[in-house]
């Protein structure tokens, strides 16, 4: 009976790990890591702790004229009040674009 309980517990744990991996956002690679390192402090889970009305959801971005990765990179380079400016010496264009693509694919 104890072996069955251990087996069931192990199967449930593996199932939970599998479901977590399947639920991971698309684009969860370099862009996700760069987002975590540079953006997640103010945008946890796509929210905006400084200006809550300007979160990273697709509908909010679109309402603010941000529809493609280059629009997000432009906002990183010339942000509005309350957002840290990321110039290309701090955040290279390739990495900024990976973050932008991650945002658009994750926070739909």
Principal-axis shape: globular
CATH class: Mainly Alpha
Radius of gyration: 18 Å
First-to-last CA distance: 46 Å
Q: Biggest β-sheet: count, sense, barrel?
A: none
Q: Residue-averaged pLDDT, rounded?
A: 83
Q: Report the total helices.
A: 5
Low-confidence parts: 12-27
**Relevant CATH superfamily:** Cytochrome c-like domain
Structural domain count? 1
**How many strands appear in the DSSP assignment?**
0
Instruction: Find the CATH topology.
Output: Cytochrome Bc1 Complex, Chain D, domain 2
Give an overview in words:
With 108 residues, the chain is mainly α. It has a single domain (26-106), classed as Orthogonal Bundle (Cytochrome Bc1 Complex, Chain D, domain 2). The chain contains five helices and no strands. The chain has helices at residues 2-23, 30-38, 58-63, 69-77, 93-106. Helix 2 (30-38) packs across helix 5 (93-106) and helix 4 packs across helix 5. The longest helix has 22 residues, at 2-23. It is globular and about 30 Å long. The termini are far apart. 20% of the residues are buried.
């Amino acid at each position: 009976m104890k072996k069955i309980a251990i087996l069931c517990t192990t199967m449930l744990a593996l199932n939970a790990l599998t479901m977590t991996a399947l639920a991971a956002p698309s684009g969860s690679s370099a862009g996700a890591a760069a987002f975590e390192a540079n953006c997640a402090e103010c945008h946890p889970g796509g929210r905006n702790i400084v200006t809550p009305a300007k979160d990273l959801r697709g509908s909010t971005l679109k309402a603010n004229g941000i529809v493609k990765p280059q629009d997000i990179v432009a906002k990183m380079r010339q942000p509005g009040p309350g957002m840290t400016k990321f110039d290309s010496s701090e955040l290279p264009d390739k990495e900024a674009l990976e973050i932008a693509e991650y945002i658009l694919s994750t926070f739909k």
